[in-house]
Amino acid sequence: MAREAQDDAALLQRIHAHGEIGATAQGGVCRIALTDADRQGRDQLVAWMRELGLAVHVDRIGNIFGLRAGLADDAPVMTGSHIDTVATGGRYDGIYGVMAGLEVVRRLNERGTRTRRPLVVAAFTNEEGVRFMPDMMGSLVHAGGYPLQQALDSVDADGRRLGDELQRTGYAGEMACGEIRPHAFVELHIEQGPVLEAEGLAIGAVQDLQGISWQEIVVTGQSNHAGTTPMHLRRDAGYCAAAIVVFVRELALRFGGSQVATVGALTLQPNLVNVIAARATLTVDLRHTDEPTLQRAERELAAYLAALAAQQGVTIEARPLARFEPVRFDPRLVGCIEAAASARGLAHRRMSSGAGHDAQMMARICPAAMIFVPSQAGISHNPREHTAPAQLAQGATVLMDVLCALANEGPG
Amino acid sequence: MAREAQDDAALLQRIHAHGEIGATAQGGVCRIALTDADRQGRDQLVAWMRELGLAVHVDRIGNIFGLRAGLADDAPVMTGSHIDTVATGGRYDGIYGVMAGLEVVRRLNERGTRTRRPLVVAAFTNEEGVRFMPDMMGSLVHAGGYPLQQALDSVDADGRRLGDELQRTGYAGEMACGEIRPHAFVELHIEQGPVLEAEGLAIGAVQDLQGISWQEIVVTGQSNHAGTTPMHLRRDAGYCAAAIVVFVRELALRFGGSQVATVGALTLQPNLVNVIAARATLTVDLRHTDEPTLQRAERELAAYLAALAAQQGVTIEARPLARFEPVRFDPRLVGCIEAAASARGLAHRRMSSGAGHDAQMMARICPAAMIFVPSQAGISHNPREHTAPAQLAQGATVLMDVLCALANEGPG
Which are the contacts of B284, defined by CB distance < 8 A and separation ≥ 6? Predict the structure, then answer.
């Protein structure tokens, strides 16, 4: 018990010390990719990696890898996440997975444990995509899904080039992107959703990641006086927008399972109390872990929009904003996570991720999976992001067990 | 026929000439109350009144009255409307009723017709309420519904006082407000709605004016990630707002009759594609010509909001923004209008006004009613506001017949 308490304290101490870099008055962290705060966070990470005896490699997109040698020269087992944040970030999103990777190394060092395969702790560049597009950039380039040069040429709102910012901050590395091809990749992350907390569970074994369909819908009706225009002569863009919101909600409830549907953005024009809206612009966010089901949701929405337009005498235009297919993680790795949680007596479940993560990019080149720990009230991208210390420690312990099991696997 | 064609031309000519004052590049009129454009419009009106032999009186709130003497000294019959516009005004709202009053006088003069009672053509100050609150100010003060001093002390967004602007433009008159107490008041106006056009009718005999209930509703839920938050754990302010929009629409259709219900303004926070809205602010505009029915609509809405809040785990606050009881016009005057339209062979119907008009204020102190002519596509407060020349002429003819009938009535 004494040793476990020490372990927990070491992990928390590192998370909190790192959270001071870019700390905001609200208790959160603002460490947008390749700003000075991000550079300081990287410098701290590299210093800790070296203290733990890891060999540090930085690749040409700025991904940082800390390598712990194995007994054999087989492909390494990799863990990691990201240390950049959104502007109103919390102290756990991303950073937790990287700090837990360091914690696993610290525990193995302390206990003198060697693994057959090398272990790698990774911090991927620009996961959040706040300043430079696309998001999950570092892992995507590592997996060969996006050309390096195009990523380096990405420009922020002030016209600054990502490649120049890498040079400026000292993280334009020498290693070729994708040079490390892991035996397996496991990412530990806070859930950023309310499911584990609501069900009183400690560990989520993430088996897949939802496909995403974003559309922008524009309804064009007729602006008219709210008092003088009888209901049957209206072409009310505002009503149509509301009907669409209700439709997608009912669609999600009807489909059930992992289906979610959200209208998060909606604006009316002219947006006046006594004028029927001439125009409504709204977004629809549909997600499902099953691609055919996601396509069915898209088709049902399209049919509804056509029927609504005809019925209400308005025109409705929809255009795609983003579209990603679902990702299925490696079932064997998911089983390893479940087994590790069970062995530690931790309540767990299989689940889906509704958010994007670096692990989905790594899944393109090696078996990959994720471990989730609870997020209090599901709050994330917010200074109020919180996971209890004991839950953070439990996640790190499961990560350690899974990494050790994978790292002791033989070739083939 | 030749004389009628001449009559029509005279009315149109005056409307179009007056529409040049404050004309906008879009073909509309911007003549906000007590601006220089409004002063020019008033000067032109007064000049035309004098040309027609009317005795011009201006009262202390700037209302302009042109008096045509009668054979007897009985209470006069009054018509009129307003000549101020909104910023994006058309060429007919208000001004049509005043110009048609002049046209009636011109025709009576030309034909040498005398009436028993005097006739008065009125232009009321600041009907639109764009710059100074409240709207329908001149007629409201005339009817004793608002203290003169308070109206004079009304201040615009730039800090200018209405009383000072009356002085500056030369329309701070001497006559006491409310000095002229009419035998009857009849206002001719464009419908500003689509009903007459949709039904192919020339004349609306306006029997009442809808009561208005405006509320602002604020829904407070919980902002969460659109991907990671299962449907059953959401407290989605955006969905609740949409459900309210759909509810009020269905309420209006269920109540039927003159019931209208509109959500014209709706904003979400944070209004992002992948974030469940934490907060929604919307307005609800309910109108009905029957006060108990309007109150029933308000009660049903309140009950729905309470049930929705409980069901969805959100808080919903509603606060009144404006509340006016319905106005019932004088049934005998409405009958006069119908009779005049029938005698001229013009298709007509009884109807309600969904917008506010000076006639509703005059109804406080004398029998009052309104005549509507069609508005193309129901468009108003817009440069595209349009009524066909023949329809404008028909309205003026009915106005003349009604005014003559009323002005030949004896005392008691």
Answer: B213, B214, B215, B217, B244, B248, B261, B262, B263, B301, B318
